[in-house]
Design goal:
The protein contains twelve helices and ten strands. 36% of the residues are buried. Bound molecules: ligand C2E and calcium ion (3 copies).
Length: 275
Amino acid sequence: AKAEGRGTHRASTAEPDAKVNRARDVKFALNNALNLDEFYLDYQPIIRLASGEISAVEALVRWKHPQYGILAPDLFIPEAEHSGAIIPIGRYVIAAACAFAATIPAAIAVAINVSAVQLHDASLLETIATCLATHGIAPARLEFELTETAMLDITPQTVAALEGIKALGCGLSLDDFGAGYSSIATLFYFQFDRLKIDRSLIRDAIGESRRRIILRNITRMARDIGIIVTGEGAETEQHRTALIELGFDDAQGNLFSPPLPAAELQRQLREVAWG
Ligand code: C2E
Ligand code: CA
Ligand code: CA
Ligand code: CA
């Protein structure tokens, strides 16, 4: 029993070490990937339902991993947030999205996802302002998307970051609304410009009158307070029809377009411009 006790003791001291080592390895790998230019952005159009025109494009980060191929953000963003590597990765995303914004029509906004961790970065506002200036982008062309989970740890610093983003003249979107810890307080206390209804709610509202009533009232409330409402994950014509009936302004999803490489989207926009 004594030997077992010692073993247990050893294990419990070794475990935090292993965790620290792993976190350090992950942080190193992510920063290394950034230095090697292995991250890039795809862009997914957000469509105005009434006209079919592109209202914005959302920048979605990918990791072109030398061994594993193209990795989706869900596979490395949580690790990046945990290790702090999201700060430099997030800076890259903001810079690349601004560079892209300069190449497309000014009527199209560019939406950028930001993690809660980034709201604690004292240099976030400066990063945004510098990128806007470098590429000559009007601030109103950028929309920063925050999930409700990001809104959970509201501190004076995160409040200042959100107010700072608004003060710069950029937009704020509440992402994945209804997916997790929805709180009316988030809408109550912060002036979002866009509300993005999570795709699970869109999917589950089809043919369910009670749920459709709830969504119809959300879009009505949003209209009354001047917020654009986007339905995420629109995959079928049925979704499109339902979103229009329920009073959504915009929609995003594979029905309209999957996320596209920058060059492909630029090509499509040029074709539209030429007729
Ligand atoms: P999100 O912000 O909710 O982005 C939309 C996700 O839904 C994207 O996944 C997109 O590819 C996917 N999607 C779009 N249309 C459809 C559809 O019709 N059906 C289905 N099933 N899915 C659709 P993706 O690119 O894998 O991104 C996953 C999440 O990773 C994003 O969710 C966002 O929370 C996060 N993310 C992406 N880029 C960044 C970034 O630069 N920074 C941070 N912090 N997070 C990011
Ligand atoms: Ca988003
Ligand atoms: Ca979303
Ligand atoms: Ca999501």
